């Protein structure tokens, strides 16, 4: 079967790799000049398999008024006259309850742990998981080519009540398969001495030894290099998809079948089309009668060079109060955070970048904002559903498949999502319940 995949971010590239490894003819279509150049380019870099709780949690709505009043708030909202934004917000509000949040967390954990197993097999050279890809990519087998490492993760709490609440969840998290340990202030700093600077502010921390990091963009590049030499794969970068090619429509979307895509360079015929284009999927799908409820959550990052002797963390750190994550990727410290519910493209807000730089300086004594260009500021549009559940599988339109809506968890969930999609296309039973991510709701 010939499958056309729209989008070469981490979700699109893992989907291409998985389908190609199963013998499908695959064409990847990407408007950028290479893979992973948009939302996958400079994300947080943390593969946080045990931390996938949705943004729509039971305590979120009560925090929103305070967040809206703070200029340095971790979440910003700019009202838009677009009805789609208000539909998304209403659905998000309905999901902000303990029952829905717990159910979503359980589903996402299953997908995350499946992804973790597949990434481990990929990195450690399991030929079956690698799809028997030929050729040699330096650093591929051990993950060094994209700075993959198991560093563990510390969720640092500055507020005693928040730390107590996190400790009370440990047994519940353990019942879901998470391995976590509560640490007091001294044990936290002993484990990660780079936190000495804020020792007095730390109420405690939750340590998860199994969490990993990697450079998502370089991972996408590695996948592209693996796929380039395969006879059944075509990578068409710099190709803008302008629409879905329909057959039997006659103006009636109910009788439509997708048989390929239209591009600025001509049509590409395919037996199936997988849309994995992040937030750009929304306008592409609309003419086919598919309307996924996605909204962009703009996130920001800076990448701080680590000089010799610099006190930067070796363990991934999340500052719970400020909603900022820190990950050592190679010889740099990736600092990421914020969620801006705004329209428009991934323009960089200097105030947000300055806030990340100031926090990094305050916590670790590095990354000051004197020269923001040296910090490689970046912004990306994370495609989020109100519930936090991605849409994976066949859509309501024959021939059209979706792998979208992963929000801030694209890197974490990509391997498992690609596996679920490939299973669905083959009519196989998946390792986890694929109905949890039903794409026909769009």
Automatic annotation (TrEMBL):
The record places domain FAD dependent oxidoreductase at: 2-423
Q: Which Gene3D superfamilies match?
A: D-Amino Acid Oxidase, subunit A, domain 2, FAD/NAD(P)-binding domain
Q: Which cofactor does it need?
A: FAD
Q: Name one GO molecular function term.
A: D-amino-acid dehydrogenase activity
Recorded GO cellular component terms are: cytoplasm; plasma membrane
Function description: Oxidative deamination of D-amino acids.
Member of which family? Answer: Belongs to the DadA oxidoreductase family.
Name the UniProt record assigns to this protein = D-amino acid dehydrogenase
Which organism's genome codes for this protein? Cupriavidus plantarum
């Amino acid at each position: 079967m010939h499958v056309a995949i729209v989008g070469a971010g981490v979700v699109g590239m893992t989907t291409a790799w998985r389908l190609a490894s199963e013998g499908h003819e695959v064409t990847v279509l990407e408007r950028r000049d290479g893979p992973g150049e948009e939302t996958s380019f400079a994300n947080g870099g943390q593969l946080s398999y045990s931390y996938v709780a949705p943004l729509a949690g039971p305590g979120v709505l009560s925090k929103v008024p305070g967040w809206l009043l703070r200029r340095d708030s971790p979440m910003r909202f700019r009202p838009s006259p677009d009805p789609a934004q208000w539909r998304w917000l209403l659905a998000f509000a309905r999901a902000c309850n303990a029952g829905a949040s717990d159910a979503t967390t359980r589903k996402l954990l299953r997908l995350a742990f499946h992804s973790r197993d597949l990434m481990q097999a990929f990195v450690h050279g399991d030929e079956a998981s690698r799809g028997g890809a030929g050729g040699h990519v330096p650093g591929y087998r051990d993950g060094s080519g994209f700075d993959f490492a198991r560093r563990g993760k510390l969720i640092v709490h500055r507020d005693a009540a928040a730390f107590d609440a996190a400790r009370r969840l440990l047994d519940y998290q353990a019942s879901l398969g998470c391995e976590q340990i509560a640490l007091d202030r001294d044990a936290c700093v002993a484990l990660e001495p780079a936190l000495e600077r804020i020792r007095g502010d730390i109420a405690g921390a939750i340590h998860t030894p199994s969490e990993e990091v990697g450079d998502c963009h370089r991972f996408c590049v590695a996948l592209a290099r693996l796929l380039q030499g395969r006879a059944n794969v075509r990578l068409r970068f710099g190709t803008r998809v302008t629409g879905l090619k329909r057959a039997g429509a006659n103006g009636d979307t109910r009788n439509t079948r997708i048989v390929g895509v239209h591009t600025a360079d001509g049509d590409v015929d395919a037996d199936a089309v997988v849309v994995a284009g992040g937030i750009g999927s929304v306008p592409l799908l609309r003419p086919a009668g598919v309307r996924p409820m996605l909204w962009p959550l703009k996130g920001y990052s800076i990448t701080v060079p680590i000089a010799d002797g610099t006190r930067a963390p070796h363990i991934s750190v999340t500052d719970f109060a400020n909603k900022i994550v820190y990950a050592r990727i190679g010889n740099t410290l990736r600092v990421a955070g914020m969620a801006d519910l705004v329209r428009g493209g991934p323009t960089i807000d200097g105030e947000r970048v300055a806030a990340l730089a100031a926090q990094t300086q305050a916590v670790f004594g590095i990354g000051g904002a004197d020269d923001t260009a040296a910090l490689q500021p970046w912004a990306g549009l994370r495609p989020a559903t109100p519930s936090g559940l991605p849409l994976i599988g066949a859509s309501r339109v024959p021939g059209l498949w979706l792998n979208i809506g992963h929000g801030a968890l694209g890197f974490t969930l990509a391997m498992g999502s690609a596996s679920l999609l490939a299973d669905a296309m083959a009519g196989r039973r998946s390792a986890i319940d694929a109905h949890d991510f039903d794409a026909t709701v769009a």
